[in-house]
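Entry for the shared binder. Reason: the reviewer on the internal report wants the predicted structure included alongside the sequence.
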Amino acid sequence: MSNFHDSPSPRIAVIGAGCSGLAALKVLAEMGFHNLVCFEKNNQIGGNWVYTAGEGHSSVCETTHIISSKWLSRFSDFPMPHDYPDYPSHQQVLAYFQQYAQKFELERFIRFNITVVQAEKIANERWNLSLSDGSSEVFDFLLVANGHHSVPRHPAWAGDFKGQYFHSQQFKNNRGLEGKRVLVIGAGNSGCDCAVEASRVARQVDISVRSPQYIIPKFFLGKPTDTFAAGTQWLPAPIKNMLHRLVVFLQVGKYTDYGLPQPGFPPTRSHPTVNAELLDKIRHGKVKPRPGVTHIEGQTVHFSDGSSVDYDTIIAATGYKISTPFLGPNFLEWEDATNVPLYLRMFHPEHKTMAFIGLVQPQGSVWPLSEAQAQLVGRLLKGSWQLPADLHALAHAEGMAIEKEFLKSPRHAIEVHFHPYLRKLQRLATA
């Protein structure tokens, strides 16, 4: 076992300079760790928040705004600017990260345009990183902050469609969809955004919704919906679930009135879709709901209700796979997992000198959680907090608990409840 916590200056590698990598750098540097190196494959910080029109980079869309309000999407000691709206644009979010990096001088730790090709565990639980410039370096501890929105998940029938097909990762704007018949697959946050934007220019936009889910407006009683939900955290779960269902009903009514399947589970059991426009577009006839796809023949799509429609374009908003290509194909096999066995969503029981930062999908914002995760890693590195002896059992139990607490699917494999998870991390980091 590596004795990194006995070293006054352990070498720490961070993979990725998106929001999670930046949080890790800031927190660890503030805790006195300055032997930090962050490898970023792009030429600037920000990860997915760097908008590019090309397809080579997984980025936000041209019109993206965050789906958690600015009040719950900020680092603990770095509030968003006062003049930002409740739901800032992607340009404003990127500027916020840039200001954060500048204030805390984080770029001194970052090597841009360098990809980690392979991360191999060597003697004494250390890590040898092979880099895209041909060099290699050894580190005492590895922080993986490469995100989980880079490798698209495609439906099995994707190759059967003879029209234009692409994943929502490639959807950067609605240009090129003018006058076309468009089908969007999936009603998650990306799917709803694609359908809304396409409906502004396309001749016809349908959205295929295979299973029920909550599509929630961004405001309730004039305030961001997530701030209302935050105020109910103290309630017992049954009462909280009943209240959330009531609030959604007051905002939306019955989903069946929109032609959508009605969820039979509480809003907290799935990752919410937060969208202020889709339901309006449906009721104005600009977007038409369809059930799940059964099969495709040429450009004809057949649905589970027996109907069939011809389309020019299909946009598959079918999610992403968890990908850690630098760890090798058999190191972690989580691409299709519904259970990711990590303690605190961070620590692998067999690789104790590695931690994942930001490998969570919260019902809220990621980067406040990444900050709290990094604080716990700092305590581990200092030796003031220890990993539990029964790490295997705890990691397994957490993975099983997520399968039970949320709808069982790869989409929810890394889901967490924002406030309880944050409180747990903070409690451990300050104990």
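Summary line for the report: The longest helix spans residues 237-252.
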